[in-house]
Design a protein that fits this description.
214 residues; alpha/beta; 2 domains
């Protein structure tokens, strides 16, 4: 065993500071992912302070390597994810029901991103149908996720995929079940997310031929 490894094992065994190693060890997942920074800032950001989606870290890594500048994305619920996707795809349109939050995100958007404010549930749900077809639709908002999921299917390209965040929550499992009954398969990513201590699940719902080559 190397002297470096021996040192860390000695520290953990003698001082019982395993929790501290998670925070300071340069190869700790918490350090590499930037979880501590996101927790302190109360923002979904990586270790460098760049915006990332508030999904599980494993799902972010999986998605990122498959994004390209030809994809169009629609998102229920804007945020740091909107800024993240805008740097990686052709276009992203988000619908948001919180006016002040929408204004905050709009002020940071590049030219290929748009946030539409809709505080009425029906308008919010149906907004996805006003902008053509999308390759990726993200279900991560606060209003009626099942109705949003149902509307999303009709606005999806033949090779499109749907991302359902917090898919392990009892009230959101119905979104996954609806898609499964309509020909979608689930690729779940369970684990740690930015900001919070509690793990969650992000599910990518896809069909056999899809834009992410799953």
């Amino acid at each position: 065993m190397s002297s470096v490894k021996s040192f860390w094992f000695w520290i953990r065994r003698k001082l019982n500071l395993g929790w501290l190693l998670l925070i300071i060890h340069p190869k700790s997942g918490i350090v590499l992912e930037g979880w501590s920074r996101s927790f302190r800032a109360n923002q979904s950001i990586d270790r460098y302070g760049n915006p990332i989606p508030w999904y599980t870290y494993s799902s972010i890594h999986f998605i990122e390597s498959r994004l390209n500048n030809t994809l169009r994305i629609f998102e229920y619920g804007c945020g740091n994810s909107t800024l993240y996707y805008a740097k990686r795809v052709s276009e992203i349109i988000s619908v948001e029901n919180d006016r002040e939050w929408a204004k905050k995100i709009v002020a940071q958007l590049p030219a290929n991103a748009k946030v539409v404010f809709r505080d009425q549930e029906h308008q919010y749900v149906c907004e996805v149908g006003n902008h053509g077809q999308f390759d990726v639709i993200i279900i991560d908002g606060l209003l009626n996720r099942l109705a949003c999921t149902q509307a999303a299917v009709n606005a999806l390209t033949d090779q499109g995929i749907i991302i359902v965040d917090n898919s392990e929550w009892p009230e959101f499992i119905e979104c996954v079940n609806f898609l499964a009954k309509n020909g979608f398969r689930e690729l779940p990513f369970y684990g740690q997310t930015p900001i919070t201590f509690v793990p969650s699940q992000t599910s990518i719902m896809y069909r056999p031929v899809n834009c992410l080559d799953i």
